Amino acid sequence: MEALNNLISQINAFVWGPPMLGMLGVTGVLLTVGMVFMPWRKVGYGFRQLFSDQNDSERGDVKPFNALMTAMSATVGTGNIAGVATAIALGGPGAIFYMWVIALFGMATKYAEAVCAVTYREVDANGKHVGGPMYYLRNGVGEFAPEMGKTLGVLFAIFGAVAAFGIGNAVQVNSMAAVLDDSFSIPTWVTGVIVAVLVGVVVLGGIKRIGDVAGKLVPAMIVLYVGASIVILLMNASEIPNAFAMIFKYAFEPVAAAGGFAGAAVAAAIRFGVARGVFSNEAGLGSAAIAHAAAKTNNPVQQGVIAMLGTFIDTIIVCTMTALVILTSGAWMATGADGAGLTGAVLTSEAFSSTIAGGNYVVTVALAVFAFTTILGWSYYGERCWQYLFSEKTLIIYRAIFVLAILAFANVKVDFVWNLSDTLNGLMAIPNLVGLLLLAPMVFKVTREHFAKND
Question: What local confidence, expressed as pLDDT, does residue 69 receive?
Fold first, then answer.
């Protein structure tokens, strides 16, 4: 098993190496420029569409707001808390600048994914609207390259169905069980049983129930987490200008070692900022498109501008809050019991607890709830990929296996599963990005037409 894990780690390093990160960045830049920076100019328009009244005649299964919350339930999580801390610990404060950059261009990628998802979605035998990369690869790319579209669609579905058990199940429930055991002494098996029951109740209700739960939990936890961050920033207000100064300065200059921080070159800031930014908002992976395909809308562009808000909220708002708390508190230079610098969730927890009493519990609760909602979001992604490969009649099999897996993953080490799922996540992006680039002319066309009528 050790040898296999090492092999997967090597494959993972290649899959998430410079070529993949470069492909993600180039795709985002091309889409942004092709739409004349529309995603940056229309953030306000997107928020207005998010809360606009719904027409009962719109086709779909869930409200656009709940579709966004379902997508965000799978993205707002460990990346926002542990991922940001890791980026700073390994790349220095400048990593946050590159996290912002990849997010700004990732908004166009997420927009294009949702436009394609709604445009090429289908209605299954149960009357549910289903879509995502596998459908726009088959139905969109397939219009001019049938075999290519079909093959890419199947590959994406295979990668997605399997990856859901890792990044969306094992890693999440294992992390949740560990933090609850550490902070509240709750046995890991108890967490596994409770989570399995709750997830089972929700996922058996399908996308409507997942959307309803995500529509309540995700906004509440974002408000709680961002609210606690704002309290800390008010207490450390004098350090905020210096935090921003460090972010911009060390984006272009090496940062020297200080305290527990080992120092970092500019190349490290770029590498970890981009990698952790993509890990956090998932723009380019295509997963969020599966949720947006179920939205009640007749207008792909309308859902696209709502979808791009997910990247904006996830990275520009939530990740920035985490980064500023870490930098203003000085925790990024602190040392642990072993004399080494802190990283991951431990660093974020230290930043919160060093400023406000019980701050570590805020991080623990946020991690637990975000992990739970991530499980819900990825259960839906996984079952839609499974349905594409087999049929809607077999969904109960996938749901049962997914829920039972929670019981096992709560009590085991998941290093191998993490590496495998991380690799499969990267492999998901390849067919998706190929599809987005080939379908970009259609995205540009419908975008121009929509805003020509609505500007």
Answer: 86
